[in-house]
Every structure is written in C-alpha cells, then in structure tokens.
Amino acid sequence: MPPRIGPRKPIKIYLAEWRESRGLTQEQLANRLGTTDVTVSRWETGRSLLNTDVMGAIADALDIESEDLYHHPAQPTPNALMRDQAPDVVDQAIKLLKAIRR
After folding, report:
1. What pTM does this model have?
2. What is the DSSP string of 45-80?
3. Collapsing DSSP states into helix, strand and coil, what is residue 91?
4. Which of 28-32, 80-84, 91-95, 96-100 has maximum average pLDDT?
5. Contact in structure between 17 and 73 (CB atoms under 8 Å)
6. CB 50, CB 58: distance < 8 Å
7. Which residues contact 69 (CB under 8 A, 6 or more apart)?
8. Which of 51, 59, 66, 93 is paired with 76 by a 20 to 30 Å CA distance?
9. DSSP class of residue 83?
10. Spatial distance between the Cα atoms of 81 and 49, rounded to a whole number of angstroms
11. Cβ(30)–Cβ(36) under 8 Å?
12. Burial (Cβ within 10 Å: 0-12, 13-18, ≥19) of residue 88
C-alpha cells in the first residue's frame, strides 16, 4: 500500500490571534457566528476542524479574508498588504516583485 500523502505537520490556523486582534472574546465571536463559545474554543485549540464554509463565516465575522486565517495578524500576506490599494500602487508593487525575482 502506498504511503498516505498529506501535510507533514498540521496547518496552523490563527483564529485566536485574529479574534484577539479584533478585541473580541470567544463569546462575542460565537454570537456573531450563531454558535457557542465552546465551539469557538474547540476551533482555536484544534479539537474541532474547520471546513471552508465555517472559515468563510469566521473571516466575514472578523472582517478579513479566509486566507488571512493561515497567517498571524502581525505578519500580513502580500495580498493583505495590497488589499484596498490604488491600481497604480499595485502595478508598482508587482513591477518591484518581478525585479526582485530576477
């Protein structure tokens, strides 16, 4: 039987960090999502897994994109940094990144 293919280590979700960065308690986030603080706690500790629908609802409740949950709020992704920038700023950033790749 071939070996199972999957991540070498669990993928970290930064739900607690994002919730705290927004100044919310587990109970407040749970109220926004229509669930309980126990469920939020289980998501944060990894005792319950998140599916894509739940991640989307959490992202909406925290006013972030779903992909942001994979990154610590203090270390934004390039996409997060470029969000809401003027088109000319995005074009300049892309040109700079292409120059760095060479």
Report:
1. 0.79
2. HTSS---HHHHHHHHHHHTS-GGGGGS-TTS--HHH
3. helix
4. 28-32
5. yes
6. yes
7. 13, 14, 15, 18, 55, 58, 59
8. 51
9. T
10. 28
11. yes
12. exposed
pLDDT tens, 64-93?
Answer: 999 999 999 999 888 889 999 999 999 999
Longest Cα–Cα distance in the chain: 53
CA angle (17 as vertex; 77, 70 as ends), nearest 5: 40
Give the tokens for residue 84: 């809401």
* C-beta neighbour count of 6 within 10 angstroms: 7
Q: Is the dihedral of CA 20, 29, 14, 18 positive or negative?
A: negative
Q: Supply the CATH classification number for the domain 15-75.
A: 1.10.260.40
